[in-house]
Amino acid sequence: MSVFSFEQEQQFFHEIKQMLDQQTFERLILSQYKGELTQLEKITFRVVELHGKKQLSALYHHTTQDVTKNYSFEDGLEQIAVLITQCKQANLFATHQEIQLKKNKKKAMLNMGKKHSVTTVPTVQAHDREKQRYVQQGSAFLKELGITDEKAQIIPSMARKWKQINKFIEIFASAYEQIDAEQKELNIVDFGSGKGYLTLGL
To answer: Where does the Methyltransferase domain lie (predicted)?
Structure first.
């Protein structure tokens, strides 16, 4: 028995399976989640290579934290089938094509379009190497600010603040590299309006 309420959901799911088979799948974004998990906002699926084997990596975006889970293609497709019925919008990106599914209580709309950009081969992300960070997770100030625990692990509720600090430093580093050599010595001023997360990161 099909889990889908609309024919368009079934067609959208078929397109996902076909793109995975053809190795043209880039990413899937399921948004406007309306299921039982009250803090879940959206889910992003990508193909990754883990220990030499391709898998579907799902990033669950919650209100206070992000959670990553890796699935085999078979298990991942089972998760996707259920999530399609629980989300009001889904965007599928492939090498040559973009497909959008939008729903309300009465109907579902499927929009299929071709990419206009230069075609590239989908990149399989390797999760065996650590993502580059501009601030070391073991930095003492992170513990003092309550972002990491005693073992230098990110506290789930502070995950977004951790990402914000790294993004801020990344942007600042790019701008800093464009300054003339004579001006490379800078004075950092904090106006004391908060806890100084970003200032301490610098």
So the answer is: 160-200
Q: How many domains does the chain have?
A: 2
| DSSP designation for 185 | -
Residues 6+ apart with CB under 8 A from 40: 33, 60, 61, 62
> Domain for residue 189, yes or no?
no
Return the structure tokens found at 130. Answer: 């650590």
CA torsion 66-67-72-77 (nearest 10°) is -60
What phi-psi label fits residue 146: left (phi over 0), alpha (psi between -120 and 50 degrees) or beta?
left
Q: Which range of residues forms the domain containing residue 90?
A: 7-114
Q: Extract the tokens encoding 6.
A: 């609309």
Helix, coil or strand: residue 134 = coil
Q: Do 151 and 79 belong together in one domain?
A: no
Rounded Cα distance, 8 and 175, in Å:
46
Grouped pLDDT means (10 residues each) for the chain, 202 residues: 84 96 94 91 93 92 91 96 95 92 92 63 52 72 84 85 82 67 62 67 62
Could you say which of 82, 114, 146 is where a domain stops? 114
3-state secondary structure of 78: helix
pLDDT for the residue numbered 125: 56
Residue pair 45/57 in contact (Cβ under 8 Å)? The answer is yes
* 107 contacts: CB under 8 Å, gap ≥ 6: 6
